[in-house]
Design goal:
10 helices, about 260 residues, single chain, elongated, 4-stranded parallel beta sheet, 8 strands
Length: about 260
Amino acid sequence: YETASMHMRGIMMAKMLQQQGIEAVYTINEKLKNVHIDQDTICVFIKVVWPETLKRVQAAKARIVYDIIDNWTWSNLDHPFDCIIASNKDHKAHIESLCNKRVEIIPHLHTNIARKRKNVNKIQTIGYVGLDKQFAITDEMKRHCHKIGLKWYQASGGNAKTVEKETLTLDLGVVYATQAMNQLGLKYDYIMKFKPATKLTNMFSYGIPVLFNPTSAFMEIVEQNKMLEYLVVNSADEVRKKTYELKNNIKQEWWKTFVQQ
């Protein structure tokens, strides 16, 4: 199988290497048999390690890299990787505590390869693009939006072909996790420490502001631009308060600065 995050991560890594004059190709597992592999090849497994493919790569004496992104089962770390890719500092430290392997950080960058930009002059639609079970305040936000005259929009973001259109529907994004996700089979602590900042960087790349939890990966972005601290939310009340402020131009000067960046 192939998720949208795997697909976009693979394409982007291949394109960036190609731009530097390095021969690179992204392919899904069943088509790898059509790609020549030898001892000068570096094979990067993204999120999932396929045992039969791993055997083939080992037999060719290629170097092997594992890009975990958001696979937190940790069950693959015993494989003979030459390097493991983490998404942020906490992610790197945790992997290093579990295995004696080289670990490097490569953030999961935005997918706005065409550098499209949405000029948001007025907030009319706010929402969330991602897995439903990672967003626990949908009903609250629907009621809040109705109350203050905004449209709430929500989409899965699971299809690489439609996620851009879904994202551009928004004038303001919300990424907010709660402990309630533990009841749905997810791990809140893992989300806060290890979840890549993809949703954030995607929306920012289009010029769309996002209200977000202070996850480790998100806060590493804030460290690079302190004006983003305003967008950090620690409760559903803060989400509603800042939504109201942005909708009613109470933070007009902040908004102007954000749009110009």
